[in-house]
Write a structure and sequence with these properties.
Helix content: 40-55%
Distance between the termini: 13 Å
Structural class: alpha/beta
Number of helices: 6
Length: 170
């Protein structure tokens, strides 16, 4: 079964550049992000949706396009990308992995039992995936180190275990 991942586009771009977004090069940054996500989607067989704010673009309706299997959604004027992300969390709940560092959106998604991955964590996964593809490295299953330990339980809380499990799938 394919993993469904919904990404807060501008949030991820901001995390990757480390600086604020400028209007001049925003289109180039969007295109660069999509180019990075296309090979990731193909290798992981994930259903990827990237959501961007379209309010500044003067869009009268929500627009949707698909580029090499990656779904791209722009919000319409008067609507934020956050509201679309919350809509996805409400609709797909635990079947969704949401990539955002926005606290409001993350807290809402967690309340709906959606797994939330911070943008910087997803960037690390994306970087690793790109490196492995470039070097031709085949992923091997890693043994869980906690299984061999004795003593008091070191079991993570349920939500953290679910997040770790989802990160391993990514």
């Amino acid at each position: 079964m394919a993993i469904r991942i919904v990404i807060d586009g501008y949030n991820l771009i901001g995390a990757s550049t480390g600086v604020g977004l400028s209007v001049r090069d925003i289109e180039a940054q969007r295109e660069n992000l999509i180019k990075r996500l296309i090979p990731y989607r193909k290798t992981k067989h994930a259903k990827l949706t990237v959501v961007f704010d379209g309010a500044g673009l003067g869009r009268l309706s929500r627009s949707r396009e698909i580029k090499d299997g990656v779904e791209i959604i722009f919000s319409m004027a008067g609507e934020t990308a956050d509201s679309i992300l919350k809509e996805y969390a409400e609709r797909f709940r635990e079947g969704l992995t949401l990539v955002t560092s926005d606290r409001d959106v993350a807290n809402f998604a967690i309340s709906k039992n959606t797994v939330v991955i911070a943008s910087d964590e997803f960037l690390a996964v994306l970087d690793t995936s790109e490196y492995q593809e470039m070097k031709g490295v085949i992923e091997e299953d890693e043994e869980d180190e906690r299984k061999d330990k004795k003593g008091a339980s070191r079991k993570l809380p349920k939500k953290e275990r679910l997040k770790e499990k989802r990160l391993k799938k990514l």
